[in-house]
Write a structure and sequence with these properties.
Elements: E1 7-8, E2 11-12, H1 15-77, H2 80-88, E3 94-102, E4 105-113, H3 121-127, H4 130-214
Antiparallel strand pairs: 1-2, 3-4
Length: 215
């Protein structure tokens, strides 16, 4: 007993604490439901991206094989010097990295900025050999596909980290916080019920003595 308040397992055994504990259980349960909903949404997004990336990887493997064959054909038809000449006229693309938000998770959003160069579409069509032009188009496609794959793989890593973090938080609430609060609630209730029984017995005893004295 301390200042008229009984302490057990660091729990204040009062009716106010009983009400506060009930509120905390309600808030924790609501938070747990929200975390589970968030985790389910993140897992769905992860599985969706994983499914998309499988198809993209298969496509890029096929396109790389096609591109290599086209380069070999270009070397046979037009020679290595022609391929090198065209490559020197190209410019290196700049990849711009932004972010977008999915369920509170910032995932990368990649964009390509290609500076102006002499290889305009008109020049490619009119002045570049067909075999080299076909190879250029194929490798442009491969570059775009690799960019999308890189973006999605990075997104998957960030989503997986967030899923793990959300899972740990929900487990802590479900398996530690709520059981502890329920135990505290039980202790407080048992104490208050016992105190109420004691008070009732005391009142009954006093009443019986009062009646005896009156008689």
């Amino acid at each position: 007993m301390a200042n008229g308040i009984v302490m057990a397992n660091n729990v204040r055994l009062t009716r106010i604490e009983l009400m506060n504990t009930k509120k905390r259980i309600k808030v924790a349960s609501r938070g747990l439901d929200l975390l589970k909903m968030k985790r389910a949404a993140l897992v769905m997004e992860f599985m969706k991206i994983n499914s998309e990336i499988k198809g993209l990887r298969e496509n890029v493997r096929n396109d790389i094989e096609l591109g290599i064959n086209e380069i070999k054909m270009s070397e046979i038809i037009d020679g290595t010097l022609e391929i090198e000449r065209v490559s020197y006229m190209s410019s290196n693309p700049e990849v711009l990295i932004n972010t977008k938000n999915i369920m509170g998770v910032k995932i990368p959003d990649l964009n390509v900025n290609i500076s102006k160069n002499t290889l305009s579409n008109e020049y490619l069509v009119s002045s570049v050999p067909v075999s080299v032009y076909d190879a250029i188009l194929t490798f442009k496609k491969i570059f775009s596909e690799l960019l999308v794959i890189a973006q999605k793989e990075s997104s998957m890593r960030k989503l997986l980290y967030e899923i793990d973090k959300t899972n740990r938080r929900s487990n802590a609430i479900e398996n530690i916080m709520i059981p502890r609060l329920n135990l505290n609630l039980k202790i407080i209730k048992e104490h208050l019920d016992e105190r109420e029984r004691d008070s009732f017995s005391t009142l009954k005893f006093v009443k019986s003595h009062v009646v005896e004295n009156e008689e």
